[in-house]
């Protein structure tokens, strides 16, 4: 295999039409020919950061398949560019494409820390774990510039409120000081996503993420500092990373993770078109095989919205994957698991300081 994406540094290789728009933008061949003759680039492939002003920042999660009650996202869109990302479809609600726009038009919520603090100060709010990155990665490249995630972690620490993090970026180690302070009161858990141990696969699946080596180092550093880590082997894609389940589980165990989680890839909405275009360009030798095996896991369709089966799939291939994950848990994580976070301190700190009376 020698994958070569046409647009370097990006997962998606096209912008698909927004399903909510009547009109769509098309790049015509005559325009491309003109650019070639004039020595111009038809697409500068630059990332733009656009500030938005939401009224709330924490969302209640209604899905029965997702292990979280509340989530918050400091950014919409994600420069990591993971080709399989389920969050791509949400970019259409903001008026953009789920394809390249998702990776190049990043919406920034600078008011997130203030909105979070306003919520935590409400008399009606009761402590339940809020997960940062329920949709898009809170440590994507934009965080290095805006530091919104770090500000929010300080808010959680101030109010002694439990918080979970999902990321695939080593930038989380920048905030080790705050994470350690949260861990002292059992207020933090971290999920590190590691999809493959092969850099060639990582580069095309997740082009702007931290390297595998960096992610494993991140798991170790967090674990060594008393911060509980779960490694997400997700998504598992048949014939791309499905053969790596046991090696990934061992690597997670060797670096101090307390557990592993997994999902089987599903390609809902616009993601089916984006993924199909991508795999035919980057892995033409196995494209049809992979697509048919994904369909085999979801009742003959790339798209699967059925609660209860969409994350784990069905059929022989899905059974094999789920059995391998079960075996990995028995082999490396028996009698281990992530702690239940502490919700008992929050009421005492609700006004920003410990109550004396």
TrEMBL record:
Keyword terms, alphabetized: Iron, Iron-sulfur, Metal-binding
Pfam families reported for this sequence: Radical_SAM (PF04055)
InterPro entries, per database record: Elp3/MiaA/NifB-like_rSAM, MJ0683-like, rSAM, rSAM_sf
Domain Elp3/MiaA/NifB-like radical SAM core: 68-292
Domain of life: Bacteria
Record flagged with keyword Iron: yes
Molecular functions per Gene Ontology: catalytic activity; iron-sulfur cluster binding; metal ion binding
Keyword Nucleotide-binding in record: no
Protein name: PA0069 family radical SAM protein
Naturally occurring in which organism (per UniProt): Seonamhaeicola algicola
């Amino acid at each position: 295999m020698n994958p070569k994406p046409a647009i370097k540094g990006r997962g998606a290789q096209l912008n698909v039409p927004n399903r909510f728009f009547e009109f769509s933008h098309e790049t015509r061949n005559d325009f491309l020919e003109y650019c070639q003759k004039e020595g111009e680039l038809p697409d500068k492939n630059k990332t733009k950061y656009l500030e938005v002003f939401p009224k709330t920042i924490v969302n209640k999660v209604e899905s029965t398949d997702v292990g979280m009650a509340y989530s918050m996202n400091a950014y919409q869109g994600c420069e990591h560019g993971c080709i399989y990302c389920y969050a791509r479809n949400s970019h259409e609600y903001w008026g953009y494409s789920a394809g390249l726009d998702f990776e190049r038009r990043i919406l920034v919520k600078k008011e997130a820390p203030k909105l979070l603090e306003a919520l935590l100060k409400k008399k009606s709010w009761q402590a339940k774990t809020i997960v940062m990155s329920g949709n898009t990665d809170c440590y994507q490249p934009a965080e290095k510039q805006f530091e919104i995630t770090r500000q929010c972690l300080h808010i959680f620490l101030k109010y002694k409120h439990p918080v979970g993090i999902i990321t695939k970026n080593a930038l989380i180690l920048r905030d080790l000081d705050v994470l350690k302070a949260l861990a002292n009161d059992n207020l933090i858990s971290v999920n590190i996503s590691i999809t493959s141990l092969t850099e060639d696969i990582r580069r095309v699946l997740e082009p702007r993420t931290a390297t595998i080596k960096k992610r494993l180092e991140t798991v170790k550093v967090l674990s060594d500092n008393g911060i509980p880590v779960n490694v997400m082997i997700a998504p598992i894609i048949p014939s791309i990373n499905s053969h790596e389940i046991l090696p990934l589980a061992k690597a997670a165990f060797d670096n101090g993770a307390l557990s592993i989680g997994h999902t089987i890839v599903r390609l809902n909405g616009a993601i089916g078109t984006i993924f199909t275009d991508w795999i035919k360009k980057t892995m033409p030798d196995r494209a049809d095989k992979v697509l048919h095996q994904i369909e085999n896991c979801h009742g003959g369709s790339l798209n699967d919205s059925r609660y209860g089966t969409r994350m784990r799939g069905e059929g022989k291939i899905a059974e094999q994957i789920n059995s391998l994950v079960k075996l990995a848990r028995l082999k490396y994580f028996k009698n281990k698991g992530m702690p239940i976070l502490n919700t008992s301190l929050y009421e005492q700190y609700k006004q920003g300081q410990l109550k004396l009376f």
